[in-house]
Amino acid sequence: MRKLIADEILSNPRIKHIFSDYFDTIVHRTVHPNYVLRLWAKKMIQQLAMPLSIDELYFTRLESTKYLVSALKRDASEINYEVLISEIYTRLNNNNLEGHANSIEHFIKISEEVECSTEYSVQFLNDETVNTLKHLQSKGLKIYCVSDFYTSEKLIKKLIKAHGLSDIFEAVFVSSDQGFSKHVGGIYEHLLDQLDITSDQVTMFGDNYKSDFINAEKIGIKAYFIPNKDQKRIQKRLVLGNDTKDYNQIIKSIYTRCNSKTAPPYSDYVMFFALFTEKLYAECMKKKIKNLFFLAREGLYLKRFFDHYQEIHRLKHGHTISTHYLKMSRQSALQIVLKSIENEDFTYFRDKYKNISLDNFLKNFSFSTEDHTLIIEALNLNEPSDVIIKDFFNSETFEALLKNDIFKINYESNRQNQKKAFNNYLDSFNAPYQEEGVTLVDVGWGGTMQDKLHEYFDKKITVNGYYLGLKEFRHQIGHQEKNINRRGLNFEVNLFTSFSSSVMMANTELYEQLSQAPHGSTLGYKDNPDQYTIEYHEVNEKQVYDQYIKETQDFMFDVFKDYCEKTNLVCYNLDTASEIITKFALKIGTIIPKRKLNRVINLSKGFYDNIGNNEVGESLYEMNVLTGLKNKLSTFKNYIISPEQLIPYVMRTKLTLYTKNKLFFIPSFPLYYYILLNRFLKKQIGKKVYLKYAHFR
């Protein structure tokens, strides 16, 4: 508390009222005042999906202010907030840049909310001044907040309430609403008249020598200048800065934190989940998506990220997305689109699981154990049912199965029951999917469940999908499927495989395992409102989740919350974020210490494929660099020109050698530095010659 000032004021019986400045008197900011306007621009663009950059909106605001100062012959702080925001909207609307703002009134409401949330996020209390004001209030003095500010009194009141200071102030007066300012000086006489008091009954607190001290004393108000020199020096330093460097530093700190000895190995993948979440939110705001269906099982963790991100960015008058968790797997999705046995050709199984046992084929249907056994016994096989049959769908066993009456009856019953149960399950979400379509969210990689859901709707309802990544682009040559689109937000091959996509898609198995759910896979559906899904949690898979994945997920989520808090105060765009995170993805994909290899070995024990031959474990990681080279010897030069294509083989090769002999640990960091050199040379050469269009990406 400023005891000397308080004692001096209390010693004067004539003083009954205190005028106090707000900024740098009651509160300080962690950023420069101009940076607050850039943060406002960033969030306005995010919330209204405006097609312009942060700097473009920022300078539009500055130019609007400059124009109104000239046109209205007023100080900038005396311009009414709604007049200013209306001018900004008019300029944007004239150039079709207003985004989803459907009126000036809507634009103003969003702006007020963004202004308030942005200001509060960068403010902290000046406890010394606040305690002084509380002490003076306790002695019977009336406290008023008097501020030169470009927003409304309503907004300052909201900030005061958010700081828990509402009980201190009798009233709040802001220059933009009053039409007078401290900077010009007119607000003092205006408030004396409005409150019906005299100048000798008032004392003024403030940090601006001219506005708060000189201009107050000119009309006889006793004023106290509170310079806050330390804060002023900080503000001057805050003028300097670089948004890209600030964002890079945040990602670098995450990488360092997640690669410490106390952090779970591969928790640095949190940066990829964070990037995906931001991009997904931007897409939802851009397309005004109302409902998102996160697909099991990886979708549960993705939903956790998205829900937190939306919670901290959601506005009262802004667009809100309802999120749902849809339990579906390839096995359950395939069952809801089965045709009658006469018309079903089992294309998916023929393409993906050409060699399969009869037992495993039957497990892809929700038959009871008893019916499963009866079908096998009725076929009178000459060999065990769990023996894998080569070219199963052209075998005598498969032909006999299709003619078996027990199989046909159970197949048809299961087909009808699955469709009915799934339809009721989908309706239970109370989402108007028949009108607005379905938007799915999943980790990736091809979109099988999206295709099957679209097929379930007879291709009459739009089914779009957003994935962390896409490794294949599915469409019929010469035919564009309607009502179905898919995007890989972190990487995709829809256009072409870029450098960033090559790096980010290196170890997709880890994305899947790190985002696993604590429940089993969906085998099918049952018409039971209490539990629509039939699930199975493979023992090894559950054990790996409980022992390794849950801990890693909780750690990553804590890191993500910290990421959200820090990035909220940095003005960056998603292209910048993608570029920086790609650089760290390159490091993560090529520099792999022993502790990470050991974690992959442990995680792979719980890798369970619930369809086909139900593979479990390390077989899903079996791909080494020799295999890759053998398959692509004709394009070996690609590895020299585009060495990023080697990244998918690095971890697998090290893992193969390491599991055979722990001494076979080969450092892979030379590839990291070669790729960096390769990228540098490409950029230098690409500027001068046309090799870029023949070889470089």
Structure report:
The structure is a single chain. The mean pLDDT is 90. This protein starts with a helix and ends with a helix. The protein is built from 32 helices and 16 strands. Strand 8 (291-295), helix 14 (299-313) and strand 9 form a beta-alpha-beta unit. It has two domains: 1-239, Rossmann fold; 241-574, no CATH class. The radius of gyration is 32 Å and the shape is elongated. It is α/β, with parallel strands linked by helices and 697 residues long. The strands form five sheets. A five-stranded parallel sheet has the order 5-4-1-6-7, with helices on both faces.
Short description, anyone?
With 697 residues, the protein is an alpha/beta fold. It contains 32 helices and 16 strands.
Features:
697 residues, five-stranded parallel beta sheet, HAD_sf, 32 helices, 53% helix, Rossmann fold
Number of helical elements:
32
Can you list the strand order of the major beta sheet? 5-4-1-6-7
Task: Estimate what percentage of residues fall within beta strands.
Answer: 5-15%
Overall average pLDDT = 90
Broad shape: elongated
Radius of gyration: 32 Å
Number of E-state strands: 16
Low-confidence stretches: none
Number of domains: 2
* Helix content bin: 40-55%
Distance between the termini: 62 Å
* Oligomeric status: single chain
Helix and strand content put the structural class at alpha/beta
Major sheet characteristics = 5 strands, parallel
Organism: Pseudotamlana haliotis
GO molecular function, one term: hydrolase activity
Transmembrane segments: 663-681
Protein name: HAD family hydrolase
